[in-house]
Amino acid sequence: MGNEEHGRILSQSVGKWNQWRLEHPWIDPDLSFCVLQGKDLARADLSNCSLYCAWLENASLQDANLSGADVGGASFRGADLSRADLGGVLYLTQMQIDAAHGDEHTVLPQGLRRPEHWLTQATLERR
User: Fold this and answer.
1) Which residue from 90, 97, 103, 123 has the least number of CB within 10 angstroms?
2) How far apart are CA 120 and CA 118, in angstroms?
3) How far, in Å, CA of 66 to CA of 59, rounded?
4) Is 79 within 8 Å of 61 (Cβ atoms)?
5) DSSP secondary structure, 52-92, as one string
6) Is residue 63 helix, strand or coil?
7) Taking each helix axis from N to C terminus, what angle separates 14-23 and 4-12, rounded to the nearest 10 degrees?
8) Contact 73, 52 (CB under 8 A)
């Protein structure tokens, strides 16, 4: 299970979370198995976090930094990854990406491709 204190800090607000990250740069937060379904995590610094088996369905992760995070087994179904940085994410699969929403500004790790529905969605939003 994840660290309860880390989950508590994140649940307060993204602003408090990001401030805590700045004040504790030596800590790699453990949010494994956390239920973050539907949470607004836009602009959250989740870099180098363990999000192993985290429940991120329908979460807003726009502009979030997930670089270096362990997302093995995490559920991203319906999550908004628009403009998120997923570069260097560990254990991310194409299936996880395919289940999420994103855009042409979402940074993906090498070897993963932007799903066609991301491109279609971005084209429709421009009309």
Assistant:
1) 123
2) 5
3) 14
4) yes
5) TT-B-TT-B-TT-B-TT-B-TT-B-TT-B-TT-B-TT-BS-
6) coil
7) 130
8) yes
Question: 66: which residues sit within 8 A by CB, 6+ positions away?
Answer: 46, 47, 49, 51, 84, 85, 86, 89
Helix, strand and coil in the chain, % to nearest 5: 30, 10, 60
pTM: 0.92
> 9, 31 in Cβ contact below 8 A?
no
Place of tokens 């362990």: 70
Six-digit token pair at 126? Answer: 């421009």
Collapsing DSSP to helix, strand or coil, 127 comes out as: coil
User: How confident is the prediction along the chain (127 residues), in pLDDT tens digits per residue?
Assistant: 799 999 999 999 999 999 999 999 999 999 999 999 999 999 999 999 999 999 999 999 999 999 999 999 999 999 999 999 999 999 999 999 999 999 999 999 999 999 998 876 555 565 5
Residue 61 structure tokens: 């992760």
